[in-house]
Amino acid sequence: MAAGPARSRRVFLNHLDSYCGRSIGEYLSRCVVGASLESTEEEEEEDENNSAAEVSSRPKEGVYQVVGTLSKPESTKPCFAEETYAVSSRKELLSHLLECEIVVYNITEDANQIEEATWAASALHMEIEHFATPKLFILISTIMSWAKSKPPDPEDTEIPFTDEDYRRRKSHPNFMDHINAEKLILKLGKTNKHKFSTYVVASGHQYGAGEGVLHYFFKIGWLSETPAIPVFGDGNNFIPTIHVLDLAAVLQNIADHRPRFHYILAVDVSMHTLQELIKCISKNVGPGKIEKIPKENAFLSKELTQMHLDMLLVNLRMESMFLKESFNIKWVAQAGLVENIEQIVKEYKQSRGLLPLKVCIHGPPGVGKSTIAEELCKHYKLHHIKINDVISETIANLEKIVVPKELDSDSVGEEGEDDEEEEDKNVEAAHELLARIKESMEQNADRLDDQHIVKFVKDKLKSMPCRNQGYVLDGFPETYDQAKDLFNWESEDEEEEIKGKIPKCDKLITPEFVISLTASDEFLINRIINLPERIVAGTHYTQDRFLQSLNLFREFNTDDKTVLNYFDELEIHPQFIDVAKFEDPENRFIVKEIIKEIGEPRNYGLTDEEKENLERKAAEERLVKEAQEKAERERKETEERAERMANWEEWNKHLEEVKRQEQELLEAQSIPLRNYLMKNVMPTLMQGINECCTIRPDDPVDFLAEYLFKNSPDIE
Predict the structure, then answer these.
(1) Picking from 51-55, 242-246, 365-369, which range would have the lowest pLDDT averaged per residue?
(2) DSSP letter, residue 288
(3) When comparing pLDDT for 442 and 482, which is higher?
(4) I need a labelling partner for 149 at 20 to 30 A (CA). Which of 127, 180, 250, 663 fits?
(5) What is the tens place of the pLDDT at every residue in 629-642?
């Protein structure tokens, strides 16, 4: 280490949330300023002495302070970034750039950034006189600006381009803006090299971490949905590459060394063809095969842009002499992708969270293992491992190998003699294995012995799809010995296993989660009895066979040496679920419990097409639900309206009846009174009124009263 602490430097980097920007930004944020000026040996000694925790907790003093913009405004600020800018104007962006000593613009991923990069360099160039400290501008461009260059030696096409050939480079037609930007950046750096120096880094196709242009092939391989990974064209074109962290190391060296050479080729020492790269990816992530397809068919892929296709079809041999001679790079993958594929695959899976999910479901027959396994496979996109299917598939594959077939030369590229010899050996081995299987089944009443079953299941769990996505192992292993044979390391050193408390298992295939479904015999028998006849037919759920299977399961799981004991020894403690408690024939609550225990999926998630289908399905369900709710609402309103009308009519009928009855009662009660008045009162009263009208007294009421008193029939 240097004697005194180095001063921190502020670095601006565009699109910190992109593949390249994230990797470079994170790398530089951990770099001590001037570290690449030291010898590699000193660095290695220091790395050995410092743990990962110590490195991550280093003080901010003396490291590169990374700031920059985001490609998507909604993206969260990366943890390594000091600041991120949501720039609304060029004036504001320039003020941020002037605060930084180093400005890095990456134009390899987004061509729309070319215009901003050239503006930024020009704007800084205009402010040279006002610089408080010297500034460094680095443009990360692409080797596509060399794509149409004539070979250095027309007679020997194997001679590679080097950094010194940059003046003779000719760009791919679709990358003219890139080469124009490179020329402008180099020109701006010639005005005042002490105050404003510029560099162009022509990057090979970046790989590593989450993968860049090669991600399409990694994803196809990981998904295991096709029998072969496509190679566009003949695949014999050479593709210059560099690990994205090695590219970051190149930038670190430029910042520390300020080299005199301003155009730098950033490529590793490998010279691999497209076919070699994809074949290597296929063998280590995918199905192990490649398929050559016409270049035109590449345009049918939705995930590949025109830029990606141009990059994949480039044909350049390149060698960076400058990196070897002048820079102090601690390479991650100097030899290239093929030679470091194991590490690259590990980085790819970890960066994208594509870790396999391995589950084993244990339980008695009829408890619902297969149904629950299917639901888990659907939710997590895993492979359902059923013993009968594994046996059938293995035998079918062996028979395919044994049966002679014509080789389709178009489907897979040219195979060498070594491949043919290996194929002959495979045919011979398949013959022998089929013979042993046949013999075993004849001796065991059409049942395979444990040795073959365990081998088939182990091969299945080691297959690339299970290693990539993971699996749900349905009802196997059944015994302690089967579990031991299946998951333990095949090592001769058994003494170490006996001495150690925890047996050595093959972590590649050993499950992370063990789910033990439990239920009483009575519950299971009742469940099977109530199953429809069409489900029971042709299965082991017939009464005799089911009871036999149940008794066998209980026998295997009452001893001290059970499957669950084996997992306990590995410290993989099973989750016990009592199926009877849930009273859930469709196992929805049980599946929810298991998902809660396992956690989130570890895959690519839904594709755009799947999201679209789900959204469409949800929209259709919502429309149906809304229509049903509306119809139900209208039905209720109609019923209520009809009920109100019926009640109103009934009420009116009652009211009319009450009125009629009251009228009749009133009339019946008024007849005696009327008769009495007509006989005793009305004659005298009418006479009095007539007399009153004739005389017209001053007080007619008093006159009428006196008249009635005088002429009352009772008074003689």
Answers:
(1) 51-55
(2) S
(3) 482
(4) 250
(5) 999 999 999 999 99
Token digits of residue 667: 């009339």
Mean pLDDT of 262-289: 92
What are the angstrom distances between the C-alpha of 104 and each of 10, 25, 119, 131, 253?
11, 10, 13, 17, 13
Closest by CA to 602, choosing from 357, 285, 345, 286, is 357
DSSP calls for 492-537: S-HHHHHHSSSPPB-TTTS-SEEEEEE--HHHHHHHHHTS-HHHHT
Task: Work out the percent of the chain whose per-residue pLDDT is above 70.
Answer: 87
Instruction: Kindly tell me if the per-residue pLDDT of 645 is higher than 80.
Output: yes
In whole angstroms, what is the distance from residue 204 CA to residue 108 CA?
A: 10
How far, CA to CA in Å, does 207 sit from each of 20, 280, 340? 9, 14, 11
| Contact criterion met (CB below 8 Å) for 209 and 350 | no
Contacts of 687 (CB under 8 A, 6+ apart): 707, 711
State the Cα–Cα distance between residues 512 and 372, nearest whole angstrom: 17
Angle, CA 636 vertex, CA 631 and CA 638 arms, to 5°: 95
For 422-465, what is each residue's pLDDT tens digit? 666 677 787 888 888 888 777 777 778 888 889 999 999 999 89
Sequence-ordered list of residues with C-beta below 8 angstroms from that of 505, at least 6 positions apart, any chain: 487, 488, 489, 570
Residues 520-541 as b or e (16 or more Cβ within 10 Å = b): eeebbeebbeeeeeeeeeeeeb
Q: Collapse the DSSP code of 107 into the 3-class scheme (helix H, G, I; strand E, B; otherwise coil) and give the result.
A: coil
> What is the spatial distance between Cα 573 and Cα 472, in angstroms, rounded to a whole number?
16
Range of weakest confidence among 22-26, 219-223, 564-568, 678-682: 678-682
pLDDT of residue 706: 86
Q: Which residue has the tokens 């830029």?
A: 307
Model confidence at 613, pLDDT cuts 50, 70, 90, reads: confident
C-alpha to C-alpha distance for 400 and 508, rounded to whole angstroms: 28
At what angle are helices 450-461 and 480-487 packed, to 10 degrees? 40
pLDDT tops 80 at residue 692: yes
Whether the bond between 477 and the residue before it is cis, its omega within 30 degrees of 0, is yes
Q: Could you give the CA distance from residue 239 to residue 424 in angstroms, rounded to a whole number?
A: 33
Q: Output the CA–CA distances (angstroms, integers) from residue 183 to 39, 189, 296, in the order listed.
A: 33, 10, 33
Measured distance CA(205)–CA(419) in Å, rounded: 30
Q: Which of 187, 203, 2, 28 is nearest to 100 (CA)?
A: 28
The Cα 541–Cα 676 span in angstroms is 100
Residue 430: CB atoms within 10 Å? 17
Q: Where would I find the beta strands (DSSP E) of 519-642? A: 575-578
Query: Residue 547's pLDDT band (boundaries 50, 70, 90)?
Result: confident
Q: Return the pLDDT at 76.
A: 86
Angle at 318 between CA 314 and CA 324, to 5 degrees: 150
Write down the mean pLDDT value for the chain: 84
